[in-house]
Amino acid sequence: MTLQDVLTISEQTGSPAIFDNLHHEVRLPIDDTSLSDYIQASGRTWQPADGRQKIHYSQQAPGKKAGAHFETIANQPFIKFLEQLPPDQPIDIMLEVKDKN
């Protein structure tokens, strides 16, 4: 399922869409839309009653099936991801990791 699929379901149901970087990487869209634009599109599905926009962040586990979460987060890729976030959009980032520490 692509982010566009998630956005369509969100529109039909009124539920907010959660952007997930790893799932997005596994199912890359065929257009040139930037990561920031996709996060903003997801953000537009969030209403004040939903609270602050949430996104999921994880990194691919080496040697595992595409989309499998790594046990931890490497700093540099995470910093590069943060640099792509929309600057004026408050966002909560949920880290999806196995070690939980």
UniProtKB/TrEMBL annotation:
Gene3D superfamilies in the record: Divalent-metal-dependent TIM barrel enzymes
Superkingdom field: Bacteria
Key word NAD present: no
Protein name: Uncharacterized protein
Key words of the record: DNA damage, DNA repair
GO molecular function: endonuclease activity
Keyword DNA repair: yes
Listed Pfam families: UvdE
GO terms for biological process, alphabetical: nucleotide-excision repair; response to UV
